[in-house]
């Protein structure tokens, strides 16, 4: 067996970030790959993750600062040197626990390990310049050009900031982009088929993990001291699922009953499928579709782990449901693929991956999916349409399009399923949950009925 090469946190970050840039790799996969193929001590692993996600989150702000300090356009910087400076600047500007002198030293050392070691004096000069000018660097003018200010200050693409400024106005848009840069709370769903919340929370406490009851759903809990959750016995033995509160609320809004025939149109990895089964007391029938066979394996594994046996999986494009399954369903969940801008806190690379054009393309598919799902809903049945984004084209407009074309579908009041202080936020077509207002992932949930 070949020994794994030992590397430190900064080198691991550099390798992961280079993979993200060069191969368009997902940051979590790139980092996992680097960490598992090299030897690092646990502290360095944690620091590598913090730096890698931090650089992805703040890369636009970091580039602005690098340009201001170095006096050189980013495009003129050598690629590895550019990444190394981002890593160095992230530590200087955002990581209080790394002493500035250590950040400068580690950054210069990182250059010396690579092929461009001749550029070490340049990097040393830029890092020292950043240290000197740290508190006096200029930002774009907030009053004259608020879009550019928010984009640079909070590291979001300009086109997205412009959208949000138009929709929410300057104050709220600023709160939203600021919230997107904060760590998302970690929450779990208690599997009530196997245990109850109090018992699970005591079990977790014994394992060194602390959680408090969620106020959003009765089976939810918010972690206040986390650990390696998926390695714990209560996880392996299916007594809980890691899931956001907005996602948990979505299944609650559908409110399936024991014995129902349920369709989960976009089910993988099965977070909501297993929740639906739990709400149905594992009695009835759930048809779980997904277009990707390998992702359906995740649904099956989750069902097995959580003791759910009422789920049938089928690899199918949800738009084809009527052709393949002419049966009708009492309840349908359509948790569609979307731009995902509601979960930027958890997946910061999304904001750089997606374009405005993606929103239009996704909206098209979502409209077709909703139409197909409505066709297999029983009269009197309930359909929940949900997204982890709040862009109008993918949310209200998709629902409005359906309602415009189908007289038998009507919006249904979802307020009875919401926490009391959110009920006033429900609109005609559904509710928009937002991280800076509700403290949960950005989600849209719409409840519809067939008459
Ligand atoms: C937002 S995720 C669903 C998450 C899932 N409901 C959960 O809670 O775990 C969207 C899913 O839709 C699937 N998908 C994408 N296009 C699809 C299509 N045309 N038909 C069915 N599933 C599709 C994706 O593979 C992805 O697993």
Automatic annotation (TrEMBL):
Active site as annotated: 388
Subcellular location: Cytoplasm
Enzyme Commission numbers on file: 2.1.1.176
Keyword Protein biosynthesis in annotation: no
Family note: Belongs to the class I-like SAM-binding methyltransferase superfamily. RsmB/NOP family.
UniProt cross-references to PROSITE patterns, sorted A to Z: SAM_MT_RSMB_NOP (PS51686)
CDD domains with a match to the protein in the record: AdoMet_MTases
PANTHER family reported in the protein's UniProt record: NOL1_NOP2_SUN FAMILY PROTEIN _ ANTITERMINATION NUSB DOMAIN-CONTAINING PROTEIN, NOP2 YEAST -RELATED NOL1/NOP2/FMU SUN DOMAIN-CONTAINING
UniProt domain SAM-dependent MTase RsmB/NOP-type: residue ranges: 176-451
Any GO CC annotation of this UniProt entry: cytoplasm
Lineage top rank: taxon: Bacteria
Top EC class, one word: transferase
Name the record gives this protein: 16S rRNA (cytosine(967)-C(5))-methyltransferase
Catalytic activity: cytidine(967) in 16S rRNA + S-adenosyl-L-methionine = 5-methylcytidine(967) in 16S rRNA + S-adenosyl-L-homocysteine + H(+)
Keywords assigned by UniProt, alphabetized: Cytoplasm, Methyltransferase, RNA-binding, rRNA processing, S-adenosyl-L-methionine, Transferase
Keyword hit for rRNA processing: yes
GO BP annotation list: regulation of DNA-templated transcription
Entry-linked Pfam families: Methyltr_RsmB-F, NusB, RsmF-B_ferredox
UniProt-annotated binding residues for S-adenosyl-L-methionine: 266-272, 290, 317, 335
Membrane-crossing segments per the record: none
Function: Specifically methylates the cytosine at position 967 (m5C967) of 16S rRNA.
Gene Ontology terms, MF aspect: RNA binding; rRNA methyltransferase activity
């Amino acid at each position: 067996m070949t020994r794994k090469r030992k590397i430190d946190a900064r080198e691991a970050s550099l390798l992961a970030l280079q993979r993200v840039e060069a191969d368009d790799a997902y940051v979590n996969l790139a980092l996992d790959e680097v960490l598992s193929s090299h030897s690092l001590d646990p502290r360095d692993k944690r620091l590598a993750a913090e730096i890698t996600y931090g650089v992805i989150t703040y890369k636009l702000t970091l580039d602005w600062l690098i340009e201001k300090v170095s006096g050189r356009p980013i495009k003129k910087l050598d690629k590895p040197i550019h990444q190394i400076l981002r890593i160095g600047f992230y530590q200087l500007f955002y990581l209080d626990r790394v002493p500035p002198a250590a950040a400068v030293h580690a950054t210069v050392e990182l250059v010396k390990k690579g092929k461009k070691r001749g550029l070490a004096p340049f990097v040393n000069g830029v890092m020292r310049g950043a240290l000197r000018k740290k508190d006096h660097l200029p930002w774009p003018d907030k009053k004259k050009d608020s879009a550019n200010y928010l984009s640079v200050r909070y590291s979001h693409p300009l086109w997205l900031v412009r959208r949000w400024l138009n929709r929410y106005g300057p104050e709220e848009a600023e709160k939203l982009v600021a919230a997107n840069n904060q760590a998302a709370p970690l929450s779990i769903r208690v599997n009530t088929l196997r245990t109850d919340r109090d018992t699970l929370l005591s079990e977790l406490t014994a394992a060194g993990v602390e959680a408090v009851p969620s106020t959003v759903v009765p089976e939810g809990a918010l972690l206040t001291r986390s650990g390696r959750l998926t390695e714990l016995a209560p996880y392996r033995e299916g007594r809980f699922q890691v899931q956001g509160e907005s996602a948990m609320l979505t299944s609650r809004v559908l409110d399936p009953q024991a014995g129902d025939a349920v369709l989960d149109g976009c089910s993988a990895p099965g977070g909501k499928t297993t929740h639906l089964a739990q709400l149905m007391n594992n009695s009835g029938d759930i048809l779980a579709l997904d277009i990707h066979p390998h992702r359906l394996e995740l649904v099956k594994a989750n069902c097995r782990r959580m003791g759910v046996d009422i789920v049938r999986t089928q690899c199918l494009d949800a738009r084809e449901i009527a052709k393949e399954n002419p049966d009708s369903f009492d309840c349908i969940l359509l948790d569609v693929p979307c731009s995902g801008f509601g979960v930027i806190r958890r997946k910061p690379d999304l904001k750089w991956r997606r374009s405005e054009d993606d929103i239009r393309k996704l909206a098209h598919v979502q409209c077709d999916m909703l139409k197909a799902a409505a066709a297999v809903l029983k009269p009197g049945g309930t359909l929940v349409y949900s997204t982890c984004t709040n862009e109008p084209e993918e949310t209200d407009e998709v629902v409005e399009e359906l309602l415009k074309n189908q007289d038998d579908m009507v919006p249904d009041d979802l307020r009875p399923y919401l926490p009391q202080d959110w009920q006033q936020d429900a609109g005609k077509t559904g509710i928009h949950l937002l991280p800076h207002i509700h403290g949960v992932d950005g989600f849209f949930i719409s409840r519809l009925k067939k008459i």
